[in-house]
Write a structure and sequence with these properties.
One of its GO terms (molecular function) is anthranilate phosphoribosyltransferase activity. It comes from Novosphingobium fuchskuhlense. This protein has 15 helices and seven strands. By secondary structure, the protein is α/β, with parallel strands linked by helices. The chain has one domain: Nucleoside phosphorylase/phosphoribosyltransferase catalytic domain (Pyrimidine Nucleoside Phosphorylase, Chain A, domain 2, 3-Layer(aba) Sandwich). The strands form two sheets. A five-stranded mixed sheet has the order 1-4-5-6-7, with helices on both faces. A two-stranded parallel sheet has the order 2-3. Strand 4, helix 11 and strand 5 form a beta-alpha-beta unit.
């Protein structure tokens, strides 16, 4: 493929999208052709076949790892513009402390102040060692960090383009669908509520055992405490839509601003305080999403049971101890 297909008219078929992104990732197209293509897709609105096809191209070029069959991933697409604290990173530690293997996929910030990789590094996690020993730590500790830069080398040439654009693109949507551990259970937060059913359909096309796609009404790429949330359950080849609020999990509402984060050091300090038992909206947001992840994993029957189990992992110091062990193991 020497040119990218036009995206302003009819949507791309899944195979056509896969071919286009294969060319982008393989470096056979000039940079000046890629940015307009990504912007045009974003402005027109990506379709489920386009997202699935792009994810297939990304999966075909990733460096995979072996993982337990019950491993899950918890991540957001990013790009929501709210610059919140790292909820999915904290959730990963809490859920792993509950005994569920978590293959956490993430990257440095592309359009936010601190991505999962930035915050984990600020906490003292050696990202190079984390990539090298991912299979080992997943087996021994029940958690690993799959640093996108290490497992998706094809993304290297795209990073400057994404940074220059400074906006969300289909690459935000592709990342969670190309977990190097090949997880078949996921909690994915996306930044566009109207896209929840579209994204869920992409996951259905790719195949999953049980996934939840969530988006806060404010355009938050995770479950919001502030108001309502769109939620899609993808299971048994079906997509079931529903609405959920913090009250459904027995949690208090809080404005999005209550979760405002900052640079990696700021977010790392807040995450450590959370794991040490600090109460507040950040804790509640983590409990909310952890409950969803535990339901995806089949470890909780409902929201209340999930919240109770996640709270216990924090209050008994299990999640904090897990982070300490993880950091120590990678020195």
């Amino acid at each position: 493929m020497t040119t990218l297909p036009a995206v302003t008219a009819s949507p791309l078929e899944e195979a056509e999208a896969e071919a286009a992104f294969a060319a982008i990732l393989d470096g056979t197209l000039p940079d000046e052709a890629i940015a307009p293509f990504l912007v045009a897709l974003a402005e027109r609105g990506e379709t489920a076949p386009e997202i699935a096809g792009a994810a297939r191209a990304m999966r075909a070029r990733m460096i995979p790892i072996s993982a337990p069959p019950n491993a899950i991933d918890v991540c957001g697409t990013g790009g929501d513009g709210h610059h919140t604290l790292n909820v999915s990173t904290a959730v990963s530690l809490v859920v792993a402390a509950c005994g569920v293997p978590v293959a956490k996929h993430g990257n440095r910030a592309a359009s936010s102040k601190a991505g999962a990789a930035d915050t984990l590094e600020a906490l003292g996690l050696n990202l190079d060692r984390a990539a090298e020993t991912a299979e080992l730590t997943l087996g021994d500790l029940g958690i690993c960090f799959l640093f996108a830069q290490k497992h998706h080398p094809a993304l290297g040439r795209i990073a400057p383009i994404r940074k220059a654009l400074g906006r969300r693109t289909i690459f935000n949507l592709m990342g969670p669908l190309a977990n190097p551990a090949g997880v078949r259970r996921q909690l994915v937060g996306i930044a566009r509520p109207a896209y929840v059913p579209i994204y869920a359909e992409a996951i259905r096309r790719l195949g999953t055992d049980h996934s939840l796609v969530v988006s806060g009404d404010e355009g938050l790429d995770e479950l919001s405490l502030a108001g309502g949330n769109e939620l899609a359950q993808v299971r048994d080849g079906n997509v079931l839509m529903r609405r959920v609020t913090a009250a459904d999990a027995g949690l208090a509402s809080a404005p999005v601003d209550a979760l405002r984060g900052g640079d990696p050091a700021t977010n790392a300090k807040a995450l450590r305080a959370l794991l040490q038992g600090e109460p507040g909206p950040y804790r509640d947001a983590v409990l909310f999403s952890a409950a969803a992840a535990l339901m995806v994993a089949g470890e909780a029957a409902d929201w209340h049971e999930g919240v109770e189990e996640a709270a216990e992992a924090i209050d008994k110091g299990l999640a904090n101890a897990l982070l300490n062990c993880w950091i120590a193991a990678l020195k």
